[in-house]
Amino acid sequence: MSYVDEVLASVAAKDPNEPEFQQVVKEVLESLRPLIEAKEDHYRQIALLERLVEPEKIATFRVPWVDDNGHAHVNRGWRVQFSSAIGPYKGGLRFHPSVNLSILKFLGFEQMFKNSLTGLPIGGGKGGSDFDPKGRSEGEIMRFCQSFATELYRYIGPDLDSPAGDLGCGAKEIGYIFGQYKRIVGEYKNASLTGKGIPYGGSAGRNQATGFGAVYFAEELLASLGKKIEGTTFALSGFGNVTWGVACKVVELGGKVVALSGPDGYVYDPDGVTGEKLDYLVEMRDSLRDRVQDYADKYGVTFYPGQKPWGRVKADIYMPCATQNDIHLEDAERMVAEGHSTILIEVANMPSTTEAVEYLAKNRWTIAPSKAVNAGGVSVSALEMSQNAMKLSWTAEEVDEKLHEIMHNIFKNISEAAAKYGKPGDLIAGANLASAQKILAAMEMQGIV
């Protein structure tokens, strides 16, 4: 049995109730075979892959808080510190009822490779809680965040672990967490958290960084195919901050967004999401209603309840921007049958199932993986840490210029890695190989720790 197969079998045996984590480990390790096989006996002897797939530390804690009616609640909180091989742990905090250890380990594992791709000195981690901010008052969210920070503070710091926001945890929640953290530690260590508000150390351009970075990557990919964003149509999922950023930059570059989706279904807007419609996405997100039908009601476009846009909307490019495993095999089959597009650019973390990716690849689709595409957010988070460390701030234009360069380098590096290991054009393999080269080298140099 090959070393990769041994480790995959071990993960399946040790973590049988963690399907998301098993899925991402299999996807990554399968594509690393050419890299691993070159030094298989040596890597097996030093247990390199076993250490790669095992988090360095997992903290699990209870989060008690009191609602506006005086009733106490208890949620569960986590911080998964996956790898510090190339820098302090870095990764977001997700507040959503679906959050569990499997999802956070999957996100933390992906984050490790994504952060490596940025070229910046940051390791990988992820955290969050099964708390649902939807429908909660400002006071309730504040009290939850303060309780969460009262335990989280033990595990973070500018040179240890710097969390950012993620699904359900935006600048407001980061502010409440930072305020409590500062109160407990008694020092102004503002690089301990990123995604902060501008008045207390946040970076200009952070809100739109993930979406803008995804479009910069798309721009590089399209240029390599002899295409451009101008005149190109896009179908997106979600309507939150990332989707908003993607839509804004697509419109700025002359493209058209014709579809958005939510948990309730999707909308088709043949005139494009532009102008005041982009501003309305922010209103929809802030309302916490989680309904894309509101867009259809306001602008008189067609709403398709309980459906997804994949293969149902004619668009040049599909860009899932919401949650993991949104595109299943049946969606991929519909996308191929529709016949208009052959490009999938993943923006959300692991938005496609393994079966969907394999089917699209078999049908010669170009697939850009999320760990490369959505690296703009963590890149600007790391730039925020740099600004905090230097006690200065850059303009939005300076940050955007650095982000653009980072995304250019990511596309270049993963394309070169794919070609080097005999997989030209395979951006998924290229992303895994390019990021793993750096992580594995750092691990090997630092000994068995």
Characterization of this structure:
This protein has helices at residues 3-14, 19-31, 33-37, 40-45, 48-52, 101-117, 138-152, 171-185, 206-224, 241-252, 276-287, 293-299, 329-338, 354-362, 370-373, 375-390, 396-420, 427-445, and strands at residues 57-66, 72-83, 89-95, 124-129, 161-165, 233-236, 256-262, 265-268, 302-305, 317-319, 343-345, 366-368. With 449 residues, it is an alpha/beta fold. α10 packs antiparallel against α11 (276-287), α13 runs parallel beside α14 and α17 (396-420) packs across α18 (427-445). The model has no long low-confidence stretch (mean pLDDT 96).
Structure, briefly:
This protein is of the alpha/beta class and about 450 residues long. Helix content is about 50%, strand content about 15%. It is built from 18 helices and twelve strands.
Radius of gyration: 21 Å
Helix fraction, binned, reads: 40-55%
- Described by its quaternary structure, the protein is single chain
Superfamily at the CATH H level of the largest domain? Leucine Dehydrogenase, chain A, domain 1
So what's the CATH class of the largest domain? Answer: Alpha Beta
Shape: globular
Order of helices and strands: HHHHHEEEHEHEHHEHEEHHEEHEHEHHHH
N-C termini distance: 26 Å
